[in-house]
Amino acid sequence: MTEATALGASGGARHGGPAAEVDVQAEGARIAAAMGTVVVGKPDVVRLALVVLLAEGHLLIEDVPGVGKTTLAKAMAKSIDSEVRRIQFTPDLLPSDITGVAVFDQESRTFEFRPGAVFANLVVADEINRASPKTQSALLECMEERQVTVDGVTYELARPFMVLATQNPLEMEGTYPLPEAQRDRFTARVSMGYPDREAELAMLDDRGTVDPLTRLEPVADAAGVRAMVDAVTRVHVAESLRRYVVSLVEASRRSPDLRLGASPRAGLQLLRSARAAAALAGRDHVLPDDVQEMASPVLAHRLLLTPDASLARRTPERVVGDLLAAVPVPRRR
């Protein structure tokens, strides 16, 4: 067994072999309920995080400080009994701190690879836009190809592998904008938003003495999540729905409000997310509603508005809504 294979072995077989039957809806509900004890009053946000996990994607959590971005990431990490690493992104963070480094061993006279923080099932990248662009780019290969290359040697990452990154809005001081190539690697973006009045009152009562994260017990493990992911890949997608996804992506490239539309990767991740949403709803097939539900979280953060659209106070989310209204929805025959 090579060193690269050994490091990735903890992720289990990637594909192939009979997969055990798993009730994605029931298992997903258990994880969501566990996360809901910590992330109060945000069931839609919790569900989106689960969809991204089962779509084998990565989640960008963007909002102002103090609304629970890191709490959401930690709650998901603790709900799943798997290897979790947290990286606090700062301006002095180095790429080798993330991916790992080859260190020369004086005794053996050889270089020994020491894995970085990215070698885990769930990686919480806290305040990712506070690190320099050079450090941010260290995640590009990890997120897309689920592997790390150091000194010409490739090391596979475990499966499941998910990056949950938090970031503050760009108008905050001391932040670096994420490049388009990295934003495109995030399957979806979610904004936490402020809790409603009742949820905020409950938070004041419950968290006055004890942090609910300390009481959160795992309700799933890495093997169970792998089984759920495999089940999601078997969800049926009709040909008409595939064409619908492609039509939405193509329409974004022709939109007069956009100077950068959705990439082919965006269409692929939209379809994967729709599959995961269908599985969590207890269905073995995708509906147009699944695609429409996931369109804004998956597409909006990848789109770049034209200067005129920005001056007109258009938003990427509104443009996605216009695309959904313009592209014909496939009908059952």
UniProtKB/TrEMBL annotation:
Domain ATPase AAA-3 stretches: 58-187
Domain of life per record: Bacteria
Domain ChlI/MoxR AAA lid, residue spans: 251-320
Signal peptide: none
Annotated SUPFAM superfamilies: P-loop containing nucleoside triphosphate hydrolases
Protein name: AAA family ATPase
Organism name: Klenkia terrae
